[in-house]
Each structure stands twice: as C-alpha cells, then as structure tokens.
Design a protein that fits this description.
The protein is of the alpha+beta class and 345 residues long. Helices cover 25% and strands 25% of the residues. Strands 1-2-3-7-6 form a five-stranded mixed sheet. It has a four-stranded mixed sheet with strand order 8-9-13-12. Strands 4-5 form a two-stranded antiparallel sheet.
C-alpha cells in the first residue's frame, strides 16, 4: 500500500501550523470543488485528496500518529499493515508507556452502516478508520499483558469510544449513525447544532464486562470543514462576490446556506466588505431561552444563528481605453475623501 504525503498534497511544510493547514485546504477546496469543475475527474480526485489530507493534518491526534508513521513507514509495513491493533506506545521503538490492545471494527462488521467511505483512500481507512461520514470505532480492553487473578476476578466494564464525522448540513438538520457494539446495533442521535469536538455519552451502551454489565459508549463529534462557510458558534459567515454594476444599482443574488440557497437583495450603493445579516439562516442553537433572575422570562434567544454575508465587489476586466472612460464618468460624480479620517495631523 502506497504511503501518502499529506503535506505535499496541501503544499505546506511539515512545520505548518494548524491555521496554515486550514488556509491551504480552503484555497484548494475552492479551486477544485466539483461545482467549479463539472466532469473533471482529475480535479475531483485532487479534491478528495485535499479533504483526506486536511482530515488528518487538522486533527492534532491524527497528525501526531501520521508523523510517527512517516518516520517508520517501512518498519510498520513489515509488521503487517492493517492486520491488527496499533500499539503506539511501542511503535518505532518508543520506550515504556501503557500498551492497549485495540480492536477496530470494520465497515463490513458494522453491516454497511458506517457511511460512505469511498471518498477516502485505502491508506486512510486502513490506518485511521472508516473516514468520512462514519465511525472510527475502537474498543479499549484491558492493558496488554495484564492478567486476571484466579480467572474469576471481575473485569471492569470496558470503555467503548468512537468518532463521528458529520457535515455542516448534518449539523444544520441533525442526523443519526448506526454502530455495532458487543453484538448489538445501536442508533446514535447527533443533535442539530452540535459543536465540533462535542462528546455524546450513552450510558450502558458500551461493551459488557465479565459480569455482564455494559460500560458507556462515548462518541466524539468531528464537524468536517465546509470551504463555503466560517463557523462562529451558531452564526455562519460566507463571502458573496458581486459585480460593480450590482453594487451600484442593486440586485437579487443567490446565497448558499448549509441546507440550500436563498435570494438576497443587495441594496444600491453596497460597499465592498459590507456585511449583511440574514437572521435565522445560521445553525440551530443548543442553548434554551434566556431567563431573568427569579425565573421570569427574558428576551428569548433566537432558535437559530445568523448567516453573515460579506460582500466582495469584483471590478470588471477592462482594457486601458474602457477603464479610462469609466473612471472619467465616475469622476463627474465627486465623493468625500474616503481617507479623510486617516490623515496624519
């Protein structure tokens, strides 16, 4: 199986910060998005590679494991890649530390309910789990090499932990995942408005201990980045390019939301960088209505956040003569000095 250089995919150095990784990913996602490259299989392939690279390098834990893997790839292949649990405490000669036996449940063992994993490579799925839309589901058992005394001692109920990756559209609407735990199929509800890194604990839904009592199932939610939006709690920020004519005269233009597009009326004379708030077009809020001291109702918190549309005025591409003609026409309509408040006295 071929090793994938995720740093090369995103075009960043190995020392890149998380912010630099995100910036490189957003640039590639805009450039390679299928909506901008219909029918271009090469762009679609690079788009999937960029998503995969970002999924690893933006996650501190995955990036740590990936960097360890990069330095020991050949040695790791020789141990039988994908043929069992990953013992990170001893991998690559790392001394000491607790070693855990890890069993990874495959998408097949989940009965095909792990979600669409086709967008991630065999390398990613074999090393990090099921990938987009599913669970990276680990069952943590007793420490490796630890023995039970007398064979009858009670083993505490194991902790079952997994990761659910959801899209921003699923955050807007809420979704469910199906997991297989200890021979049981369990439906996990991911609530609308869930935050990145939120944890969902299902008590008694985990793996059974030697006494038959099941432990908890702990799911960590990872919200996949959407290159169209910046999330600020329940609010979303998106950029809207418009023409100079639309900025001067006004227009109705479509604006994306996580659940579809809406029409936005751009007022005449809209400035570059101006922000327009569309109330209630953001994500669901997880908090309930606010109350005053003593229990009386205060102003209710809106059920959903806002969609903040930042206007980007795109100047027309003109030749020198046309540009001079347009500038001359605009000069006939003098305006106040836009830099007056920045002058040094």
């Amino acid at each position: 199986m071929e090793y994938r250089d995720y740093y090369q995919v995103l075009g960043v150095p190995r020392s890149a910060t998380r912010a630099e990784v995100k910036k490189a990913y957003r640039r590639l996602a805009r450039e390679l998005h299928p909506d901008r490259n219909p029918g271009d299989s090469a762009a679609e392939k690079r788009f999937k590679e960029a998503n995969e690279a970002h999924a690893v390098l933006s996650d501190p834990e995955k990036r740590k494991h990936y960097d360890e893997l990069g330095a020991n790839w050949q040695a790791y292949q020789q141990t039988g890649f994908g043929s069992g649990g990953t013992d990170w405490a001893g991998f690559g000669g790392a001394p000491g530390g607790m070693r855990w036996e890890v069993h990874r449940v495959s998408p097949d063992e989940m009965g095909g309910q792990a979600g669409d994993v086709g967008g991630f490579s065999d390398f990613f799925r074999a090393f990090f789990g099921s990938g987009s839309g599913g669970f990276d589901f680990d069952t943590l058992t007793r420490p490796a090499g630890s023995a039970r005394r007398g064979g009858a001692a009670r083993t505490p109920a194991p902790t079952a932990a997994g990761t659910a990756e959801v899209t921003l559209t699923e955050v807007a609407r809420g979704t469910v995942r199906m997991v297989s735990v200890d021979g049981r199929r369990i439906q996990v509800t991911i609530p609308a408005g869930v935050a990145d890194d939120a944890r969902i604990r299902l008590r008694g839904a985990g793996v059974r201990g030697s006494d038959g009592v099941a432990g908890d199932l702990l799911i960590t939610v990872r919200v996949l980045p959407d290159p169209r939006f910046e999330r600020r709690g329940a609010d979303l920020v998106t950029e809207l390019p418009i023409t100079l004519a639309e900025a001067l005269l006004g227009a109705e233009v479509p604006v994306p939301t996580p659940t579809g597009s809406v029409k936005l009326r751009v007022r005449p004379g809209t400035h570059n960088g101006q922000e327009i708030h569309l109330a209630g077009r953001g994500l669901p809020r997880r908090a309930g209505p606010a109350t005053k001291a003593g229990g009386t109702a205060a102003t209710a918190v809106p059920a959903r956040g806002d969609l903040v549309v930042r206007v980007l005025v795109v100047l027309p591409e003109l030749d020198d003569a046309s540009r001079a003609e347009l500038a001359e026409a605009l000069a006939k309509h003098p305006q106040p000095d836009p830099r007056a408040d920045r002058k040094v006295h």
